[in-house]
């Protein structure tokens, strides 16, 4: 389906690239660089899809999105932003945007979003509600920190579920912040004025889980001196977070399933049913399908919980966020009364090289420890090595290897920069990419025996993009297979 597209960004390169890509698909495209230009073209051009940046020279491009949608209910708005925060993603969704894409964005993903918007804009009646102002919490009040591509995907999923009551299953290793995701969904959702109640299945004796969840009557068991409301009743009207759901005993799973189906709880030792209205967010670090195969987890409960899965990346999979998180934890430590410390660049690079088996929780503990242990105001890499020898990259082959590669690459780039004649100084990024990328592509294809699907998966790009790059560099996978045999 072809349409009229308005692209608004103060970066001329983005307007040119996006505009040309859309024109090649048959769309009619106009571009603007400011909110004022956008307003003028909205009146005269009347686009089907508006693609707009947030931070524009004359204001915030997101502020008047509800007004735009109210005045033209059929228009679909796609938000681009380099801010890359959870608040931006949620605000874009709540204000009626069809899609939110963090910068740098994938051009193929953007063109697919345009196609989807054109196909569904007339059917998406919910966009007409965008003129309602949402009381959004400030970003500083939100518990999640991170600007990596992996976290952007988490933010986008959260943004899509905060306005409904769908059941969420948060998946991830211990320490990745599963409870923080649950808290963010609750704080940003329509139940935020109601209770947020959390229960950790792994921290409660098996024989007490049902009493904790559903409550108990006086005399139901030894020590039950009064009637006590369970977590479901405590969370009534709000959100119940079931942490480590994979550790729940089978008998308790059966009763939980019954409550989820009926919306009613019966206390231990009681017979009356109590109606409850809660949003369920569950979390686990276990492989639930494997537990199902071992008859340790109910398959029907799994499907009841896994309505919207949110997989959380391990910290080693979002290394770009590590310096940001480390400084965030130092600031938090200072706000809690510990000495204020700053992080030197070499220390931030060293932290980013470690594997962090304990994930974000481990990093937080390390930063709190450094705030106490170091006398100086600035934490350096040498201080980290001396104070935390057990975390030294030398004790981790993968991290040490990553540091050696980084050091070698840094020296290689410096050597090329020192000889200006070797590189065009006006195209440094392109020239460097042309030197590095073909080697990366060839070695990845060799490692996968020329299998382009596996190679694309390893590289984190789609197969069409890989094929395009192979053609660009003149790399033939069949030849590679022959060379490797």
TrEMBL record:
User: What keywords does the record list, in alphabetical order?
Assistant: Activator, ATP-binding, Cytoplasm, DNA-binding, Nitrogen fixation, Nucleotide-binding, Phosphoprotein, Repressor, Transcription, Transcription regulation, Two-component regulatory system
Q: Which compartments does it reside in?
A: Cytoplasm
Q: Which InterPro entries match?
A: AAA+_ATPase, AAA_lid_NorR, CheY-like_superfamily, Homeodomain-like_sf, HTH_Fis, P-loop_NTPase, Sig_transdc_resp-reg_receiver, Sigma_54_int
| Main subcellular location | cytoplasm
Bilayer-spanning residue ranges: none
A single BP term in Gene Ontology: regulation of nitrogen utilization
Q: Which GO terms describe its molecular function?
A: ATP binding; phosphorelay response regulator activity; sequence-specific DNA binding
Write out the GO cellular component annotations. cytoplasm
Q: 4-aspartylphosphate-modified residues are where? A: 53
Domain (Sigma-54 factor interaction): residue spans on this chain:
144-372
Q: Which SUPFAM superfamilies does this entry report, sorted A to Z? A: CheY-like (SSF52172), Homeodomain-like (SSF46689), P-loop containing nucleoside triphosphate hydrolases (SSF52540)
**Boundaries of every Response regulatory domain copy:** 4-118
PANTHER family the record matches:
DNA-BINDING TRANSCRIPTIONAL REGULATOR NTRC, TRANSCRIPTIONAL REGULATORY PROTEIN
The cross-references to NCBIfam families, in alphabetical order and at most eight, read: ntrC (TIGR01818)
What's its job? Answer: Member of the two-component regulatory system NtrB/NtrC, which controls expression of the nitrogen-regulated (ntr) genes in response to nitrogen limitation. Phosphorylated NtrC binds directly to DNA and stimulates the formation of open promoter-sigma54-RNA polymerase complexes.
What is the protein name for this chain? DNA-binding transcriptional regulator NtrC
- What does the organism's lineage look like at the top? Bacteria, Pseudomonadati, Pseudomonadota, Alphaproteobacteria, Sphingomonadales
């Amino acid at each position: 389906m072809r349409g009229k597209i308005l692209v608004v960004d103060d970066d001329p390169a983005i307007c040119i690239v996006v505009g040309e890509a859309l024109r090649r698909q048959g769309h009619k495209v106009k571009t603007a660089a400011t909110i004022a230009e956008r307003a003028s073209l909205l009146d005269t051009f009347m686009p089907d899809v508006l693609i707009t940046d947030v931070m524009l020279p004359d204001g915030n491009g997101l502020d008047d999105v509800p007004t735009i949608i109210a005045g033209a209910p059929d228009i679909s708005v796609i938000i681009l932003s380099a801010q890359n925060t959870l608040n931006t993603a949620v605000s874009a969704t709540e204000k009626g945007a069809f899609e939110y894409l963090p910068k740098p964005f994938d051009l193929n993903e953007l063109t697919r979003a345009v196609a989807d918007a054109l196909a569904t804009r007339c059917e998406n009646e919910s966009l007409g509600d965008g003129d309602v102002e949402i009381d959004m919490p400030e970003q500083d009040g939100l518990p999640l920190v991170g600007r990596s591509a992996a976290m952007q995907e988490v933010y986008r999923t959260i943004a899509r579920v905060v306005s409904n009551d769908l059941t969420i299953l948060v998946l991830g290793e211990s320490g990745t912040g599963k409870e923080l995701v649950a808290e963010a969904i609750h704080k940003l959702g329509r139940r935020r004025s109601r209770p947020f109640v959390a229960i950790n299945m792994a921290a409660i004796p098996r024989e007490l889980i049902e009493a904790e969840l559903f409550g108990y009557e006086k005399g139901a068991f030894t020590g039950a001196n009064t009637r006590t409301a369970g977590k479901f009743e405590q969370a009534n009207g709000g959100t119940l977070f079931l942490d480590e759901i994979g550790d729940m005993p089978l008998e308790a799973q059966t009763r939980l399933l019954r409550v989820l189906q009926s919306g009613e709880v019966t206390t231990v030792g009681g017979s009356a049913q109590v109606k409850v209205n809660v949003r369920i967010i569950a979390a686990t670090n276990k492989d639930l399908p494997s537990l199902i195969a071992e008859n340790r987890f109910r398959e029907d409960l799994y499907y009841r919980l896994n309505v919207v899965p949110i997989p959380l990346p391990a910290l080693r999979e979002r290394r770009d966020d590590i310096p940001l998180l480390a400084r965030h934890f130092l600031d938090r430590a200072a706000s809690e009364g510990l000495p204020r410390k700053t992080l030197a660049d070499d220390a931030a690079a060293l932290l980013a090289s470690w594997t962090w088996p304990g994930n974000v929780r481990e990093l937080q503990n390390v930063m709190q420890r450094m705030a106490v242990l170091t006398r100086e105001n600035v934490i350096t890499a040498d201080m980290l090595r001396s104070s935390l020898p057990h975390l030294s990259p030398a004790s981790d082959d993968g991290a040490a290897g990553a540091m050696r590669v980084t050091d070698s690459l840094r020296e290689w780039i410096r050597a090329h920069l020192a000889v200006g004649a070797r590189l065009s100084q006006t195209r440094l990024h392109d020239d460097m990419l042309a030197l590095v990328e073909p080697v990366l592509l060839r070695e990845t294809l060799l490692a996968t025996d020329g299998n382009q699907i596996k190679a694309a998966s390893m590289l984190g790009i789609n197969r069409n993009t890989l094929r395009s790059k192979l053609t660009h560099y003149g790399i033939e996978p069949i030849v590679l297979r022959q060379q490797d045999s």
